[in-house]
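Hello Y.,

Per our agreement to keep a running log of every chain we model this quarter, I'm adding this entry. I've kept the format consistent with earlier entries: sequence first, then predicted structure.
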Amino acid sequence: MEEGDVGCLVVIDSDSVAGVVTDRDLAIRCMGQGHDSGTCKVSRHMSSPPITVESTVDMLEAAHLMTDKKITRLPVVDAAGLVGFVSLSDIALAMDIALTSMNRSLHDLLRGMGAGRSA
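Predicted structure for the entry above:
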């Protein structure tokens, strides 16, 4: 996690998602309970079974699932296995970009409607 500067890792076993371990899991379940982080197995502290989302699910449904399950990151899977990862901040950024684009388009539309009118 430190090397990759990430807060979450997906645990793969036999080409399928077996669990998820977060920096919070390690802080609370491992170090917080006095375990030796150098010798503890990931399987002891990972969340399993993992909550995943299919790659065909839209971002609002994924955000709803994260909110409902009180998680901020989701492994994305398809029939072949893990295909990616999405976070609540990824979704928030995508929504911000979409809203900004829509706002510009609406502004241009309204400005164009006003330009064709005579005073």
